Amino acid sequence: MKNLSLILNAILFVAVAVLFFLFFSSKKSTESSVKAPSDLKMAYINSDTVLKYYDYVKEMRTIYDAKNKRLDQDLKNRAQSLQNDIDSYQRNLSNLTIGQAKAVEEDLGKKQQNFRLYQQSVEQEVVNDQNKLTTELYTRITTFLKSYSEGSGLQVVFKFDPSSDVLYGDNAIDISQDVIKGLNEQYKNDKKPASANPDTTKAKVK
User: Fold this and answer.
1) Angstrom distance (rounded) from CA 176 to CA 25
2) What's the per-residue H, E or C state across 25-57?
């Protein structure tokens, strides 16, 4: 999950670019309707803080860590089984005929190829999971920021952490806690099971 910080950085970069585009493209071309840079209402969030306290990220980290451990253990077990077969072949090689040795080598070659294919499929599955998480995280954060900006009047939200280009941000425009609270409330609501619709169909009178 170390890549999550990079994911959030990319998400916020795109979000800022979209906000800039929407802000400037929605204004009329007349000078009187264009706001000066000093009129922009800006804020920032600390990406490390959001990733640390966003319940969705914490839950996904737990799920993917457990899954990756299972996949890693399965790979180790398969690799060990293959190594055991190779060791057995080498120990018994002197007792095998040329034909038997050739047959075992062919079988081992197939097992090695199958192992490599399985290893590649596991690696691809991890990549797919990461892409899925990236997309979901992008959607959740950008959707929330859009709603939040409409309610607060913000035109730009920056990402602020040691890797960002923002060297200083006053605490007064740090909306990290508001964003975390909003994201967690939204995530909590998303997880609620849909209420069962009562059966309004009346029984027919016999």
Assistant:
1) 27
2) HCCCCCHHHCCCHHHCCEEEECHHHHHHHCHHH
Q: Which two tokens stand for residue 162?
A: 């040691």
DSSP state for residue 164 in the 8-state scheme: S
Give the separation between CA 45 and CA 177, rounded to whole angstroms: 8
User: Can you give the pTM of this predicted structure?
Assistant: 0.67
Tens-of-pLDDT digits for all 206 residues of the chain? 555 555 555 555 545 444 444 444 544 444 444 445 557 888 988 888 888 999 999 999 999 999 999 999 999 999 999 999 999 999 999 999 999 999 999 999 999 999 999 999 999 999 999 999 888 988 898 889 898 988 888 888 887 877 787 778 888 888 889 999 999 999 999 887 755 444 444 444 33
- Which residue in 183, 172, 176, 182 sits closest to 48, CA to CA? 176
Q: Where are the domains of the chain?
A: 3-18+38-189
Cβ atoms < 10 Å from Cβ of 86: 15
Decide which of 3.50.50.60, 3.90.1150.10, 3.30.910.20, 3.40.50.1360 is the CATH code for 3-18+38-189.
Answer: 3.30.910.20
